């Protein structure tokens, strides 16, 4: 699997990081995560569209939950992150840190359009 955008290694400063074939993605809304805001992926057994479907379900759960709030603050940032990255140069062992998978596993335009669609559907204000 090739990245859609380069990921720079925080140790060797080359754009040599890649997403591992298996791992976990966490969803953050304005820097906060719900307990249920994560899902597993396996690029060896799943197509990207299947992972996108799981991501959409998890995002929809959050928007549905947040839509029930009386005083909703506009969402300023939504991100998908994973710490399941490795460096081709062997840097950092198993822990290089967390990186966004938007633009790596999911197209940025697709993700942005999905957030806007769900926000509109659930009447959630956005200020991205």
- Structural class, please? alpha+beta
Low-confidence stretches: none
Mean residue pLDDT: 90
Number of helices: 2
> Regarding quaternary structure, how should these chains be classified?
single chain
Strand order of the largest sheet: 3-2-4-6
- Overall radius of gyration: 15 Å
β-strand percent reads 15-25%
Overall structural domain count: 1
Task: Explain what you see.
The structure is a single chain. The chain is of the alpha+beta class. It has one domain. The protein has helices at 48-67, 108-121; strands spanning 17-19, 22-29, 38-42, 78-82, 85-87, 99-100. A hairpin with an 8-residue loop joins strand 2 (22-29) and strand 3. It is elongated. The mean pLDDT is 90.
How does the SSE layout of this entry go?
Elements: E1 17-19, E2 22-29, E3 38-42, H1 48-67, E4 78-82, E5 85-87, E6 99-100, H2 108-121
Antiparallel strand pairs: 1-5, 2-3, 2-4, 4-6
Helix pairs in contact: 1-2
Task: Briefly say what this structure is.
The chain has 128 residues and is an alpha+beta fold. It has one domain. 27% of the residues lie in helices and 20% in strands.
Question: Which features characterize this protein?
Answer:
2 helices; alpha+beta; 128 residues; four-stranded antiparallel beta sheet; elongated; two-stranded antiparallel sheet; 20% strand
